[in-house]
Amino acid sequence: MKKDSRDTIVIIDSEYLYKIAKHYGHGNKLKCHINTFAIRLCKERGLWCNEIYYYTAPPYQSPIPTSEENLRKKGYDNFLKILKSLIPSVTIREGRCQKDENGKFHQKGVDTHLIMDLQTMAQRREVPQVIVVACDTDFVPVFNKVRTEYGLKIILAYFFDGVRKGNFSMSNHMFTACDDKIFIKKEYFDTTPVINDYKGIN
Fold first, then answer.
1. Confidence at residue 1, expressed as pLDDT on a 0 to 100 scale
2. Which of 1, 55, 120, 138 fits a disulfide with 110 by CB distance 3.0 to 4.6 angstroms?
3. Rounded CA separation 140/151 (Å)
4. What is the rounded distance in angstroms from the CA atom of residue 194 to the CA atom of residue 17?
5. Cα(151)–Cα(125) distance, rounded to whole angstroms?
6. Is residue 43 a contact partner of residue 198, using CB atoms and an 8 Å limit?
7. What is the structure's pLDDT at 200?
8. What band does 59 get if pLDDT is binned at 50, 70 and 90?
């Protein structure tokens, strides 16, 4: 199939998306249909969502899992089954979940997968641009590399609640390392089905 200038891959860091959904839900995570969310982002720039890459980690499991941990894992596995059935197709990359000394959970290894995939997409020239839903400044070097060496356009989808040094503070380096920015609005979490209808439209 001939490539189109609007062909786009949407890259989603699930932990970042979860934080935004929880903020908009005032502490209760808003429901989010991943494919609908990705299509809405693309529509914001008149683009076509070819594929979604979703970066996540299974819930923490103790050496001897508790009944609650088993229940979380079952829900997680069911969620992945749904993701794998979606259109546009969703490629899932899994890291691991680690519990710190304060009992808080953090995803590990996810950033590495994202960086490797972004480099591969650029080298293969799969699409002219990607939309990245992420906020880690560790991505800045790879953003700059794929833009300068391969001409891959980086569109950053981000959120900021107006609080300096808050949960959503982001380094200016992230903004200077991308070609365009999309502010993530609450309405993007609307679960009403939306048609991925830009293909073939002049």
1. 47
2. 55
3. 15
4. 19
5. 9
6. yes
7. 56
8. confident
Please give the pLDDT value at position 2. Answer: 57
- With pLDDT > 90 as the criterion, what percentage of the chain qualifies? 74
Average of per-residue pLDDT across 12-23:
95
Establish whether the linkage from the previous residue to 88 is cis, with ω within 30° of 0.
yes
Output the CA–CA distances (angstroms, integers) from residue 51 to 30, 63, 101, 120, in the order listed: 23, 36, 37, 14
Q: Helix, strand, or coil here: 144?
A: helix
112, 57 in Cβ contact below 8 A?
A: no
Among 174, 178, 153, 182, smallest CA distance to 7 is for 153
For the cut 90, the answer to whether the pLDDT of residue 107 exceeds it is no
E strand map for the chain: 7-13, 48-56, 90-94, 96-99, 105-108, 129-133, 153-158, 180-183
CATH class of 7-189: alpha beta
160's enclosing H/E stretch is none
What is the maximum span of the chain, computed from C-alpha positions, in angstroms? 57
Bridging pattern class, strands 129-133 and 105-108 = unpaired
The residue type found at 30 is L
Give the start-to-end residue ranges of the domains of the chain. 7-189
